[in-house]
Specification:
This protein is an all-alpha fold. About 75% of the residues lie in helices and about 0% in strands. It contains 25 helices and no strands. Helix 4 packs antiparallel against helix 15 (about 270-305).
């Protein structure tokens, strides 16, 4: 067998190990190790790579952001922030039809802003909101489905551990990815609220009612969420404004939530030690998956599978939008069978080169030149520019034609195709990352595996899983509609990125 054939054959081997319940990190590591030994016809290269891959993976400064965000989420739970968020949202929405469920989504969105993990968000908000939902007569399947869907906001609304991993894999700017995820995250929360509104109208018996809360109590509850706003503004705002790097921002966030938890009485010597242990275990699990993926993807690179796949797709002349749709459908299907982090680590090194080779025309060179030219002309016609040159520039802007070198020299600007291509590549990478994050997030609530579904159902043994499956389909439909919108209108995702 050739190296390429061995690389292709590794996929069914890897899937077989996963279906045999071998941990995903170990499965990728073993397939990568055996594949390297096979391709290089010996153990020397494989063992040398094992040494180098382990060092380069765990010496990465960027990866230190992962335990910091995990610790921040744990401290936020100890500080009672999850409970404060839910009480505030419930005070304003609880009296509406389906209002307690809507409040759960709002609280999940708020907690996701200080916790980068979907599973942690689902588990934390489940403990807070599930008793309230039960108390006011919400159906078991509807309650568990709502909280499972709300938990997915933990990895979409920044900060997000999965986005950090994606940024490292694709060498993108973490701060820009966080910024790009903000509007899709808000759309997700709004979409879930709409799904709840539709569900309770179709099944009125699934949601009870609760009396409205006086406005004095509503504002009092709203004031209790100031720590969340403070931490989110400090971390995300500080990263965006350049006060500190993403890793430093994560450390500041962890310290800030720890201080708040201490003054709220939730952080003691015992709970501090427990927080470190839980964070260490979660970090070790994530890092081992990262190591296994790095080893397997290194083997794939040696066999030229990603490069050959990219070349094949480009040579076939497929529409970039068709290729993107097929990749997203792949994620939707396999999201039912695999956790989000493993999917990102396994597939991005394969699919990202394919997407990078596609031309989506997100950036127009003429539009960039026209914008730069208008900025100059709006501040006054440059000294020495003749009327004929000015007229030709204005005509080029009006007709959408490319400016010549002489015209750009007269304007004192430099906007080249190379610059447009670099911005295009960055925007495609960020846009694709957000789309992948969303479809992977759908996998967390898609039957039959849906990790969030199992976490929430484990908290409510009286609710049958089939009831949760039926109710969660409304949230899955909301997610699919959101994906279609973001694919059709990339500007929604890229709107907040600096020009």
């Amino acid at each position: 067998m050739t190296a390429l054939e061995i690389g292709i054959a590794s996929f069914p081997a890897l899937m077989a190990l996963i279906f045999l319940r071998v941990p995903i990190g170990l499965a990728m590591f073993l397939v990568g190790l055996v594949g390297l030994v096979w391709v290089t016809d010996g153990t020397q290269v494989a063992f040398a790579r094992l040494k180098n891959e382990t060092y380069t993976t765990f010496s990465s400064y960027s990866l230190t952001i992962v335990p910091m965000f995990l610790l921040m989420g744990h401290f936020a739970t100890l500080g009672g922030m999850s409970n404060a968020l839910f009480k505030a949202a419930e005070g304003w929405l609880g009296h509406k039809r389906g209002g307690v469920a809507m409040a759960s989504i709002g609280a999940c969105a708020g907690f996701g802003a200080i916790c980068g993990s979907s599973l942690a968000t689902a588990a934390t908000m489940g403990r807070v909101a599930l008793p309230e939902l039960k108390q006011y007569g919400y159906a078991g399947g509807f309650s568990t489905a709502t909280l499972a869907a709300g938990g997915t906001l933990g990895i979409l609304i920044p900060p997000s551990v999965v986005l950090v991993i994606y940024a490292i894999l694709t060498e993108q700017n973490i701060a820009k990815l966080f910024l790009a995820a903000f509007i899709p995250g808000i759309l997700a929360a709004v979409g879930y609220v709409i799904a709840i509104s539709i569900y309770v109208r179709l099944y009125p018996e699934s949601a009870g009612t609760r009396p409205p809360v006086p406005y004095a109590e509503r504002f009092a509850a709203l004031l209790q969420v100031w720590p969340v706003l403070l931490v989110f503004s400090l971390v995300v705002g500080g990263i965006y404004l350049g006060w500190f790097t993403p890793t430093e921002g994560a450390a500041v966030g962890a310290f800030g939530t720890g201080v708040i938890a201490f003054f709220n009485g939730g952080l003691t010597r015992a709970t501090l030690a427990d927080s470190f242990i839980v964070t260490a275990r979660s970090t070790a699990m994530i890092f081992f998956i990262v190591l296994g993926a790095g080893f397997y993807n290194g083997f794939l690179a040696l066999t030229q599978v990603p490069q050959e796949l990219s070349n094949y797709v480009v040579s076939q002349g497929f529409s970039p939008w068709v290729v993107l749709a097929l990749i997203l459908c792949f994620y939707l299907i396999f999201g039912c069978l695999m956790d989000s982090l493993s999917m990102i680590l396994l597939t991005i090194p394969i699919f990202f080169p394919v997407i990078s080779a596609m031309d989506f025309n997100l950036i127009s060179l003429t539009a960039m030149q026209a914008e730069a030219a208008m900025d100059v002309l709006n501040s006054g016609v440059p000294e020495g520019m003749g009327a004929e040159m000015l007229a030709s520039i204005q005509e080029a802007i009006a007709t959408g034609t490319e400016l010549t070198r002489e015209q750009m020299k007269e304007l004192g600007i430099r906007v080249t195709r190379g610059m447009a291509n670099r911005i295009e590549a960055e925007h495609v990478a960020i846009w694709f990352g957000i789309l992948v994050l969303i479809v992977v997030e759908v996998g967390l609530i898609t039957p039959p595996v849906g990790m969030n579904l199992f976490i929430i159902n484990a908290m409510d043994r009286s609710t049958r899983m089939i009831e949760t499956y039926k109710a969660v389909l409304f949230f899955v439909a909301s997610d699919i509609i959101r994906v279609i919108i973001l694919v059709a209108f990339p500007a929604i995702t890229l709107f907040l990125l600096p020009g």
